[in-house]
Specification:
Belongs to the C/M/P thioester hydrolase family. Helices cover 18% and strands 37% of the residues. Strands 1-2-4-5-6-3-9-12-11-10-8-7 form a twelve-stranded antiparallel beta sheet. 37% of the residues are buried.
């Protein structure tokens, strides 16, 4: 396991302070605010630790209320809403400086027999045929803006391979769809709860950028202010977050400085393992006067 993946697992291994009360830390890497995917993943870990391991999560719905401060710990307070025969519900509140910065509801469900169908996986090149992140950084001199190349080449616990980088080269409106392959940067333990938390972490990494494709813009533009407002994730089938997963994204709507995006996550074998939805702020910065 690489050091940066081990660091992610350490960040997800929350400290239990009391019954239903946990404390999480953030990596000290100079970011001005806590990454939203980290808060989603830590909140999921906190909630899951109050539910029997035989009952996995099937959905979560979250709101980002305030930007998190990476310099201080985050307190996660879990409320036990319901423990039913088949379903369990938890509510989690993340607190910093005496204020709620995040709130999330999580539902858990016992595995049952029933109807089954799924959407078809879109066509995409195999991840091995795509350039690795270091090659993307080197390609910055060929026209890819440095902030974009640096983002995809940054050492991180999640390896990313965008299927196409054309929209970063030619800045023009396009159909608001994109795809990226992702996986943990090294093998993970077999515990399914870890894979669910790692995927929850990863789903916030590229989704909001899909809302700007139709406008020929990206979240990397210096005159663009962007932030996740809410996040929803549904787990459909078992998966491993350390195997390549295709994250197919689209944006049906943007209006009033808010953009809405959806994502479907497939295994290489074509199994739909998760679905995602998110709305975020996409606000052009006003020129300084």
């Amino acid at each position: 396991m690489t050091g940066i993946v081990a660091e992610l697992l350490e960040i997800l291994d929350l400290e239990r302070l009391e019954v239903d009360l946990f404390r999480g830390i953030s990596p000290q890497i100079g970011w001005p605010r806590v990454f939203g995917g980290q808060v989603v993943a830590q909140a999921l870990v906190a909630a899951t630790r109050t539910v029997p391991s035989t009952r996995p999560p099937h959905s979560l719905h979250a709101y980002f209320l305030l930007g998190g401060d990476p310099k201080v710990p985050i307190i996660y307070e879990v409320e036990r809403i319901r423990d039913g025969r088949s379903f369990t519900t938890r509510r989690v509140k993340a607190i910093q400086h005496g204020r709620a910065i995040f709130a999330m509801s999580v539902s858990y469900h016992d595995a049952e027999e029933g109807y089954a169908h799924q959407a078809r996986m879109p066509e995409a090149p195999d991840p091995e045929t795509l350039p690795d992140t270091r090659a993307l950084l080197a390609a910055g001199g060929a026209g890819i803006p440095f902030p974009v190349a640096a983002y995809f080449a940054r050492e991180r616990p999640i390896e990313l391979k965008p299927v196409s980088v054309k929209r970063y080269l030619v800045r023009e409106p396009r159909e608001p769809r994109c795809q990226v392959w992702l996986r943990a940067a090294s093998p993970l333990p077999d515990d399914p709860a870890i894979h669910q938390a790692v995927l929850a972490y990863a789903t916030d990494m590229t989704l909001l950028d899909a809302t700007l494709i139709a406008h020929g813009r990206t979240v990397f533009d210096t005159d663009m202010q962007s932030a996740s407002l809410d996040h929803a994730l549904w787990f459909h089938r078992p998966f491993r977050a350390d195997d390549w997963l295709l994250y197919a994204q689209d944006s049906p709507s943007a209006e009033g400085a808010r953009g809405f995006a959806r994502g479907q996550i497939f295994t290489r074998a074509g199994e739909l393992v998760a679905s995602v939805a998110q709305e975020g702020m996409i606000r052009p910065r006003k020129p300084q006067t």
